[in-house]
C-alpha cells in the first residue's frame, strides 16, 4: 500500500509539472507573437513633383543708376541763391542756383560797346576801300595805297568778328550764372553755400539721374555664367517686402581678390529703396521639375540629411538623401527617394532605424509656389 501511495504522488507531481510547463510554453509563444510596441504615432506623406525655379542667391548694395555732378562753369562769382536741397525732385532745365551777375552784365555791356565801335570802324574802312577800288587804273592813287585801303577793310572786318565772338562769350558767361538741372532726377547731395565764391568746376550738387536705383549683386564666377540680360530678379528689403527687377547686364570683369563679379539689376521707382542700402536677393535663371518634401520631414544627423521611410508593416527605415533647392518650407530631394516613397511627415528626430510606428493618417502635401 505504501508503495502504491508513493507511486500515485509521483504521477500527480509529474502531471502538475507538465501542466505548469505547458502554461509557460504557451505564455512564451503568446509573448513572441504579440505585436511590438509603437515607438511613435506619426503621419506620413509622399514626395511631390513640382516645377521650381533655378535661382542664384546674392547680396549687394543699392546704387544710383547714374549720378550726375552739377558744377559751376564760370568762376570768381558769389553764390547768390540756392533753390533746391537734398531730396528735391527736379526737371531737366530747372533753375537750381544763381550766381551774382552784376560784373558779368557790365562785361557784356562793355563788349557790346566794343562791337559797336568795331562796326563803325569797319564801315569806314569799307568806304575807303571802295573808293580806292574805284580809282584803280586811273593813275590817281598808287597801287600800294589802294592795297593798303583794301587790307584795312579786311582788318576792320576781322576786328568786328572778334568783338562779336567776345560778346557771345560774355553772354554765355552770363547764362552760366544760372545753374540748371542737366536731367530729370532727385538731388542726392549739396555742397554749395550761399555767399561762397564759386570756382570753375566747383561741385554744387549731385543728382540721381531719372531717380533710377539699381541693385548691384555680387555673384561668383560659376554663377555669373548662367546670368543673362532680361532675366528676372527679386530683392528682399529690410522690412521684409520684395521688389522685382530685371537684369540689365553682368560686369565683364571679376574682382581679383574676391573672384566675384557684379550683376546690375534695374529696379522700379520705390520710396523704400535708397542708394547705399544693402540687401539680399535672388536672380531667376530658369525652371525645372523637382521632387520635394516639407522641411519637417528631414532629419539632420552628422551633417547629412535623412528621412524615415515607412513600409507596409509600419516599420521605418532611415534613408540618406541629397537635397537641392529650397522654396518656402519645402526642400528638393535630388537623390535617395522615389516618387512612391512614403515617409514620416514630422517627428523623425525621435525615431531610429527599424522602429515601429503607428500611422495616424496620410497627410496631404502642401504644394509650394511654382515658377511662372
Describe it:
- The chain has 372 residues and is α+β, with helices and mostly antiparallel strands.
- Helix content is 27%, strand content 38%.
- The chain has 4 helices and 21 strands.
- The chain has helices spanning 2-33, 102-134, 143-175, 221-224; strands spanning 40-45, 48-64, 67-71, 77-82, 89-90, 95-99, 178-180, 185-190, 197-198, 203-209, 213-220, 232-236, 242-250, 260-266, 278-294, 299-301, 304-310, 316-327, 330-335, 343-344, 357-362.
- A 6-stranded antiparallel barrel has the order 2-11-14-13-12-15.
- A hairpin with a 2-residue loop joins strand 16 and strand 17 (304-310).
- Helix 2 (102-134) packs antiparallel against helix 3 (143-175).
- The relative contact order is 0.20.
- Mean pLDDT is 85; it is low at 1-33 and 363-372.
For the biggest β-sheet, the strand order reads 2-11-14-13-12-15
Structural class: alpha+beta
Give the uncertain stretches in residue-range form: 1-33, 363-372
Rg = 47 Å
Number of strands: 21
Mean pLDDT: 85
Major β-sheet, in short? Answer: 6 strands, antiparallel, barrel
| End-to-end distance | 103 Å
Number of helices, where a helix is a run of at least 4 consecutive DSSP H or I residues: 4
What would the principal axes of the Cα set say about the shape?
Answer: rod-shaped
Proportion of beta-strand residues: 35-45%
Tell me the helix content: 25-40%
Query: What letter string, H or E per element, gives the SSE order?
Result: HEEEEEEHHEEEEEHEEEEEEEEEE
Short description:
The chain is an alpha+beta fold and 372 residues long.
Amino acid at each position: 500500500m505504501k508503495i502504491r501511495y508513493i507511486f500515485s504522488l509521483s504521477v500527480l507531481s509529474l502531471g502538475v509539472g507538465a501542466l505548469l510547463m505547458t502554461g509557460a510554453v504557451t505564455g512564451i509563444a503568446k509573448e513572441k507573437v504579440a505585436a511590438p510596441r509603437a515607438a511613435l504615432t506619426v503621419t506620413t506623406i509622399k514626395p511631390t513633383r513640382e516645377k521650381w525655379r533655378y535661382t542664384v542667391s546674392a547680396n549687394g548694395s543699392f546704387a544710383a543708376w547714374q549720378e550726375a555732378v552739377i558744377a559751376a562753369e564760370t568762376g570768381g562769382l558769389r553764390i547768390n541763391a540756392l533753390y533746391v536741397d537734398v531730396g528735391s525732385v527736379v526737371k531737366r532745365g530747372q533753375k537750381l542756383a544763381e550766381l551774382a551777375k552784376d560784373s558779368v552784365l557790365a562785361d557784356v555791356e562793355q563788349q557790346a560797346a566794343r562791337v559797336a565801335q568795331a562796326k563803325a570802324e569797319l564801315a569806314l574802312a569799307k568806304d575807303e576801300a571802295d573808293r580806292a577800288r574805284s580809282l584803280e587804273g586811273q593813275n590817281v592813287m598808287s597801287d600800294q595805297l589802294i592795297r593798303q585801303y583794301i587790307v584795312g577793310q579786311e582788318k576792320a572786318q576781322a576786328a568786328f568778328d572778334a568783338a562779336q565772338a567776345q560778346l557771345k562769350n560774355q553772354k554765355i558767361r552770363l547764362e552760366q550764372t544760372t545753374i540748371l538741372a542737366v536731367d530729370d532726377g532727385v538731388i542726392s547731395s549739396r555742397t554749395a553755400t550761399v555767399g561762397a565764391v564759386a570756382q570753375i568746376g566747383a561741385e554744387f550738387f549731385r543728382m540721381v539721374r531719372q531717380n533710377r536705383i539699381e541693385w548691384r549683386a555680387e555673384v561668383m564666377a560659376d554663377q555669373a555664367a548662367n546670368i543673362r540680360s532680361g532675366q528676372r530678379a527679386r530683392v528682399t528689403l529690410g522690412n521684409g517686402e520684395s521688389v522685382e527687377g530685371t537684369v540689365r547686364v553682368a560686369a565683364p570683369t571679376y574682382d581679383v581678390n574676391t573672384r566675384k563679379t557684379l550683376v546690375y539689376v534695374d529696379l522700379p521707382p520705390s520710396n523704400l529703396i535708397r542708394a547705399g542700402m544693402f540687401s539680399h536677393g535672388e536672380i531667376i535663371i530658369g525652371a525645372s521639375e523637382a521632387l520635394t518634401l516639407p522641411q519637417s520631414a528631414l532629419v539632420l544627423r552628422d551633417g547629412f540629411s535623412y528621412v524615415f521611410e515607412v513600409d507596409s508593416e509600419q516599420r521605418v527605415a532611415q534613408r540618406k538623401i541629397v537635397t537641392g533647392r529650397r522654396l518656402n518650407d519645402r526642400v528638393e530631394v535630388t537623390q535617395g527617394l522615389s516618387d512612391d516613397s512614403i515617409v514620416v511627415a514630422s517627428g523623425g528626430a525621435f525615431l531610429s532605424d527599424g522602429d515601429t510606428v503607428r500611422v495616424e493618417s496620410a497627410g496631404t502635401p502642401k504644394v509650394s509656389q511654382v515658377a511662372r
